[in-house]
Amino acid sequence: MRKVFLGAAAAIAITLGTGPASAQNVKIGVVMSFSGQFADPGAQIDNGIKLYMKQNGDTVAGRKIEIIRKDSGGIAPDVAKRLSQEVIVRDGAQVLAGYDLTPNALAAADVSAQAKTFMVNMNAATSVITTKSPYMARTSFTVWQVNEALGAWAYKNGVRKAYTLVSDFGPGWDGEAAFQKGFKDAGGEIIGQARYPVANLDFTAFVQRAKDSNPDGIYIWVPGGPQPAAIGKAIAERGIDKSKVKVMGQGELTYEEALKSMGDAGLGLITAFHYDYNHQSAKNKAFVTAYNTEFKRNPDMFSVGGYDGMHLIYEALKKTAGKTDADSLIAAAKGMRWESPRGPMSIDPETRDVVQTVYIRRVEKVGGHLVNVDIDKIENVKDPWKARQPK
Amino acid sequence: MTSTDGALAGPQQYLRAQQRWRAIEIVFWLSLLLPFVVTPNYLVLASQVAITALFALSLDLILGYAGIVSLGHAAFFGFGAYTAGILSKHGWGEPLTGLLISGFAAGLLGYLMSFIIARFRHLALIMITLGFGFLLLELANSLGWLTGGADGLQGVKTWPLLGMFKFDLWGVTSYWYSLIVLFILFLVCRRLINSPFGLSLRGIRENAVRMRAVGAESRAHLQKIYTISAAIAGIAGALLTQTTDTVSLGVLNFERSADVLVILILGGAGRLYGGIIGAIIFLVARDQFSGINPQYWYFPIGVLLVVVVLFLPNGILGGLAQIVESERWQRWTANLTPWRKKP
Questions:
Q1: What ipTM, to 2 d.p.?
Q2: Per the CB < 8 Å rule, is A77 touching B281?
Q3: What is the pLDDT of residues B30-74, one digit of tens each?
Q4: Do domains A23-141+283-352 and A144-273+358-388 have the same CATH topology?
C-alpha cells in the first residue's frame, strides 16, 4: 500500500513537468484526431497547417506562432472538450483550431464561447456548429452548402425524377435532406429513397432497387473509406448507363483513393465539392506541387481546410496587429475574402461560415488517371441551412 | 462457528478486521486532494480520472468479486450518460437529482439484464455483454430524434451544483463533485464487499456449484450485485455528462468497455482500489504520452500494458500485495520499525 501512494505521488509529479512558455507567442491549440480511425484526415489537416507555416513563416505581426497539437482520438466530445479547456487554461492557447468531427467541434464550441477564445473549425461540416460560439469561423464546407447546390444543378441539367441513397446516420440524413430540398425547390420529383446501414459493403440490392424505379438521376451520399469503391462498382455491374442516368454525390464518392480502387467503373460519376487537387488554377497547381514536394502525396479537402484555416488566423492577426482577444480576432475574420487553392472564398460576416464556389465535377480519364474534371461551378454559395433559421 | 486459528477467529472477526480503516487508505484519499494545490491546471483531467475510476469500481464489483466477465459495461455508463443528458435537455439540469435518476435508470436496465446474466458464465457472458453493448449503441444511433444520433446530444446544460457552484473552465467544481461522488460510492462498495453478502459473492466467483451446495443461492446474489454495478456505472456516465455538458455515441462505444477492463486489470481486479489506481495511471500516462507525441502515443501505452501483464499478472495492486505479504518484506519492515513488531 505504501508503494501505491508513492506511485500516485509520482504520477502527480510527472504532470508537473510541463509549464507555460513565453507569453509573447501566439499559441494555437490544434485539437483533432491524430490517432485511431480518423488519423489520416487529421494528418492531412496538419499537413495543410505545416505547409502554410512553411510558406508564410512562423511570425505574424511581430509575434511567433506556436502550434500545440492535441489528440482527441476519434469521436469523443468529452475528450475534445477537455483538451480544448486544457490547452487554454494549462498551455495558455489564445486560438483554438482543428476539429475534424462534428460532435467534437460542437463540444469545443462551448469552450470557445465560455472562455471567449477565437476558434477556427477546419473540417467538421454540420451546419449548426458555427452557431454554437460567436467566436467561431469555418474554413471547410457544409453538407447543406454542397448538396443543396447539387440538387438545384441536377434539375437545371435535365434530371426530373431522382432516387436518393444515403448512409443511415447524421451526415447522410443531412445530405439526403439537402439534395432533396435543392432538387424539389427547383421543380424535380423524388421517386424513391433508401438508407443503407452504416457498415454496409454490398450495394447490389440497393442499386438494383434504385434502377428498378427508373429514375433519370441517382443521388448517393457516402462517407469516405471503402464504401465509395463498393458503390461505384455495384453501379457499373448493375448496368446503369451513366449517359442516360446521372449518378451524383458529394465529393467523398470520388476521392483519390476511391477512384483508384474503383477503376473504370468510376467513369462518369458526377460529384459536387469545394476542392479537388485536379482543380485547374495557377494557385492550386502551385499548391499541389508544393504539397507533393513536402509530403509526397496529393492534398485533399482536409489539407485545404487546414491551409485556409491558417491563412484566416494569419490574416486576422495581421488586421488586429497581433491582438489575440476573441472579439478583435472574430471581427477581423468576418468578411475576410481571399483567393485559396480552391478558388475565391470568404467568411460570411453574419454567420462566420464559409462562402465559396461549389464545383460540379465528372470523373474522366486524363493521361491514364481517373480524375475529377470540373464541368460546372456555382459561385458564392452560402450555407443555405443557416439562411433559413429564424434569426 | 468456532475459531480456527489465532489470526482468523471467525468470519465475523475477519469481516470486522477488513472493515477497519488503515492509515494508508486515509493517506491515499487525502492525496487525491493534492491536485487542487499542486496541479490546479489539471483538474479537468483529474475529474475525468475520478469518473473513470468510479466506472472501473463498478466493473470491479461484478468482475473482481462476482466473477461476471463483461465486455459491454459501457452500456450502463452510456445509458446513465444519456439519461442525464436527455433530462437536462428537456429542462431538468439539476445535477444531484439528475445523478440519482440516471443511476436508478441504469440500475433498472441492469436488473432486467441480470435475469440473463445470472444464467451464464465465462465465454457465454463475454458474447452476451458484447452483443448487448452493440445493441444499445445501434439503438442510440437510430433514435436520432431522442439522442441526437451521430452528432451527439445538443442542448445539455447542467445547472450550478447546489445552486451555487458553476461548472467552471478550470474544472474546480467538476473535480470536487466527481471526487465526492466517487468517495461516497466507494464507501458503499467497501461496506458491501466486507459484508457476508460480499463474502458469498467471492464464494460464487470461486465455485458457484459448491456455493449452492452449502445453501447460498447464487443466482439472486449475482442479480443483486449486477444491478448495483449497473447503477454505479450509470452514475459515472451521468457524472461525465454533467461535468462536460456533452453526450455522444462515444459513451456507448466498445472501446469504452474495453478501456475500463484494461484499467481494472492494470490496477488489479478484486481489490476495490484497483480501478482507482488503474484509472490514475492509465489516464495520466495517456495524457502525458499524447502530449509528447499526438500520433503514436498508443505505443508506450501498449508497452506499459504488456509489461504489467507479464510481470504483475494480478495487476499493480496484486503485485504490490505479493511483495508486502512476502516474508522477506515482513522481516525487512519489522527490522526497520521495531516498535511495530507483533508479539
A1: 0.77
A2: no
A3: 988 888 888 888 888 999 999 999 999 999 999 999 988 899 999
A4: yes
